Amino acid sequence: MPELPEVETIKRDLEKIVLGGKITEVCVHNPRVIREPSVAGFKKGLTGSTIKNILRRAKLLIFELSNGKSLTIHLKMTGQLVYPGGGKNSRVAFHLSGGKILDFNDQRLFAELRLLDDWRSLKFVKELGPEPADLSLRQFKEMLDKKKTAIKPLLMDQMFISGIGNIYAAEILFHAKINPLLRANELTGKEKELLFKAINDILNAAILHAGSSVDDYVRVSGEKGGYVKYHKVYNREGKVCLVCKTIIKKINQGGRGTYFCPKCQK
């Protein structure tokens, strides 16, 4: 699933391409991705509107429109936005002024597209934790002190902090030299500081390199993100640690694979 760096990359790509464009027609090739309103209402509410602003909240993309409505796109596992579109895999095609098309692709149909009067009213949006970049070190430490959860699944809990998934939780903990099994409230003050810095360092570096294409994620241009070559532990089970040459291990935490170095992350 695309995480914060991937969705932020897509947002920035779209700002350069479709911001200010008028939606002249909407072709829905598979209605399953339209969660609300009806397909007819979705098409009617979008057609003729102009894309005034593009936002990201956690892993959610938001198009704010000239008619006061908002188009929200939750990419989930395999969602993609591709421009210029017109491809055979399109689930929804957004025709724009100037004759170009923005395609929404989704091989497994898990994604969710909504046209809303107020995107902030979505239940899961209301429950989201703060964005990493909006936190101070003091706030972050206080949040950790209240949690007895293992730190790896806690970083992935969108109600705790938003936007971090499996890839970046693993990379952040390696960068901070923290064992993923440690409980949040057991971390020392120094470890909390290192973790706070690692979150910002890793997410910013991933954005700089346009995210990680490990599954279906691609940029709006169709190009892959370039951050995979900087991964230190994710998906490297059985390979040597790039720092200490110890073999990278994989364990299961909460139904997700956790990659870490047993020596660097004691």
Explain this structure to me?
Helix content is 27%, strand content 22%. It contains seven helices and eleven strands. It has helices at 4-17, 39-46, 123-126, 137-145, 151-156, 166-176, 189-208, and strands spanning 23-28, 34-36, 51-57, 60-65, 70-74, 79-82, 90-96, 101-106, 112-116, 249-253, 256-260. Helix 1 (4-17) packs parallel to helix 7, helix 4 packs across helix 7 (189-208) and helix 6 (166-176) packs across helix 7 (189-208). The chain is elongated.
Question: In brief, what are we looking at here?
Answer:
The protein has 266 residues and is α+β, with helices and mostly antiparallel strands. It has seven helices and eleven strands.
Q: Please state the average pLDDT score.
A: 97
What is the count of helical runs? 7
Radius of gyration: 20 Å
Topology pattern, helix = H, strand = E: HEEHEEEEEEEHHHHHEE
Strand share of the residues?
15-25%
- Separation, N- and C-terminal Cα atoms: 28 Å
Structural class: alpha+beta
Q: How many individual β-strands?
A: 11
- Report the sheet with the most strands, covering strand number, pairing sense and barrel closure: 5 strands, mixed
Shape: elongated
Strand order of the largest sheet: 2-9-5-4-3
Indicate the low-confidence ranges by residue numbers.
none
Helix content: 25-40%
